[in-house]
Design brief:
single chain, 239 residues, mainly alpha, Leucine-rich Repeat Variant, 0% strand, globular
Length: 239
């Protein structure tokens, strides 16, 4: 079955898009996605293939995760997401455990963003969140991004504390991809939970948080308020 899947992927290869993706996902020497190979499939195309091959076993999914081809790794993760959503509690635990055992293959931001909250976040809704704090302290960039992106599922459920705690843990992170992820999740707290809570957090931390994080977090604020935060001349107070 995996050979048929690979053939379906190859049939959809688009060299022009692949070239664009190679640059967009920073696959050059010394960049965060170094060595990644793209074939130029879109996410909807990858999702369609994932649905077609949703019955793949873990052994075959592992082969896809180990592939140098980015889209094959994405399809493997989309299969896991699909099976998690449709699975029993036992299936979900197996997929959650399997996901965490294979984080070294989940090695670009889209791979994290399209799977972490659907699997880690969903599984942990009613369980201890300690694993997220361990991931936030990881030396691995992608595990740190997983820690904050996983909280998106909590935000969707109207919960915000884990997002704020992990955001604070990651405020001194040096990587731009963490700055963006934290800012994005903070913005979602304001959008889905409470804008007052977001402002309370920002008033405590905005002067020391990375500029990118701040810009993402305040994206939905009125222009004047955004300017006050970005100027940093005073603690803003909405009238």
């Amino acid at each position: 079955m995996i050979s048929e899947l690979k053939k379906d992927v190859q049939k959809l290869a688009n060299l022009e898009k692949a070239k664009i993706y190679q640059g967009f996902f920073k696959t050059g020497k010394g960049e965060y996605g170094e060595g990644g190979v793209f074939l130029g499939l879109t996410v909807p195309q990858s999702r369609k293939i994932a649905i077609k091959y949703r019955d793949l076993k873990f052994t075959d999914i592992k082969k896809l995760l180990q592939s140098k081809i980015h889209e094959e790794r994405l399809i493997a993760l989309l299969i896991l997401v699909h099976d998690f959503e449709k699975g029993s509690k036992e299936d979900q635990k197996d997929i959650y455990d399997y996901y965490l055992r294979n984080t070294k293959y989940i090695n670009n931001w889209d791979l994290v963003d399209l799977s972490a909250y659907n699997i880690i976040g969903q599984y942990l809704l009613d369980k201890s969140k300690d694993i997220l704090f361990r991931l936030a302290r990881s030396k691995n960039l992608w595990e740190r991004r997983m820690s904050i992106i996983a909280t998106y599922q909590f935000i969707k459920d109207g919960r915000y504390q884990e997002t704020l705690t992990i955001s604070k843990m990651l405020l001194n992170d040096q990587h731009d991809l963490i700055h963006k992820a934290v800012g994005w999740m903070l913005r979602e707290v304001g959008k889905n939970c409470s804008e007052d809570l977001l402002e309370e957090f920002l008033k405590k931390h905005y002067k020391k948080m990375p500029r990118t994080t701040l810009r993402y977090a305040i994206e939905r604020f009125p222009e004047g308020l955004r300017k006050e935060y970005l100027d940093g001349s005073k603690i803003p107070d909405r009238q």
